[in-house]
Amino acid sequence: MCDLLCLGEPLYELNSLPNGTFKPGFGGDVSNVAIAAARQEASVGLISQVGNDPFGVQLCDLWKQEGVETNYVAVMPRQETGLYFVFHDDDGHHFVYRRKGSAASRITADDVPETAISQTQILYSSGIGLGVSATLRKATFHAVEIANQHDVQVAFDPNLRTALWSLEQARIVTHDLMGRCNIALPGLDDARQLTGLHSPQDIIAFYHNLGARIVALTLGADGVAISTGDGIKTIPGTLVDAKDATGAGDCFNGIFLANYLRDGDLLNAAETANRGAALSTTGYGAVDPIPSKSILEQSKEYQK
Asked: Which own/partner pairs from 109-114 qualify as long-range (CB within 8 Å, at least 24 positions apart)?
């Protein structure tokens, strides 16, 4: 059985380059998290569905190459794999989606592998999965209920996408699920919108009050703030020549959870994931720039 199971929607990616062409690749936050964890040599699996189309086939091939367990990925006939475009300007990166009715959006509670979840160590999901469709939302809550029943840790990133649903609805639903999780992985911009709070300290306290034992609040270029409720440790950002921040938060989550699973050292997990997320912004695309365990170890030695 896998130590980490990720539930949600994978996507095919077309990323706009400075020369005007599009770089094909892969995305979908839970897939990015799974790959980031696998590149740290964690035992990780994906719970999802893809269409029986070239995009779905390529995603399945990718996961096998990366060592992500695909026993719980269904290839659905006559259904489509979602895709998205990434555009860049002075304000950062922007997404345009083509995912309505995708194979993954049709995941139901009946598709959730109860035995696998009961035997894993961490179940990971995100607010994107909650917003994509009502059926995937119900499936996610069902999976979390199973995890809670079997004392499996639940990690959750609210990952707000107002293109999927209203901010008001996102607040209600993500706060509900966050109250059932052990590890909260919010990004600062999303958390400010969802909580109505501004300071990292207040946001971290908010998520602890909802029930999270561990809060890792990513601060973009300013690093990450990590807390277990008895004080906040802020790890500063890593200076890099950033080109594309697509998937950087997912990269952080995957590396953080993989290292936490390895030895339980939260500060080391946060520091390593913080460095890895920064390195992931030095190339284009959500997946290609995700660093491996060996690259992260080399970068740590270089920084000494």
From this structure: 109/138, 109/139, 109/142, 111/47, 111/49, 111/74, 111/139, 112/7, 112/47, 112/139, 112/142, 112/143, 112/146, 113/47, 113/72, 114/146
Taking the C-alpha atoms of residue 64 and residue 66, their distance in angstroms, rounded to an integer, is 5
Q: Are β-strands 122-126 and 22-27 bridged in parallel, bridged antiparallel, or unpaired?
A: unpaired
Q: Where are the alpha helices (DSSP H) in 179-224?
A: 188-195, 200-210
Written as tens digits, the pLDDT of the chain (304 aa) is 899 999 999 999 999 999 989 999 999 999 999 999 999 999 999 999 999 999 999 999 999 999 999 999 999 999 999 999 989 888 888 889 999 999 999 999 999 999 999 999 999 999 999 999 999 999 999 999 999 999 999 999 999 999 999 999 999 999 999 999 999 999 999 999 999 999 999 999 999 999 999 999 999 999 999 999 999 999 999 989 999 999 999 999 999 999 999 999 999 999 999 999 999 999 999 999 999 999 999 887 555 4
Residue 258 and residue 155: Cα distance in Å, rounded? 12
Residues near 205 by Cβ (< 8 Å), separated by ≥ 6? Answer: none
Q: 3-state class of 251 per DSSP? A: helix
Contact in structure between 144 and 137 (CB atoms under 8 Å): no
Cut 0.90: pTM above it:
yes
Q: For residues 304 and 302, give the distance between their C-alpha atoms in angstroms, rounded to a whole number.
A: 6
Q: What is the spatial distance between Cα 35 and Cα 115, in angstroms, rounded to a whole number? A: 22
For residue 17, give both structure tokens. 């380059």
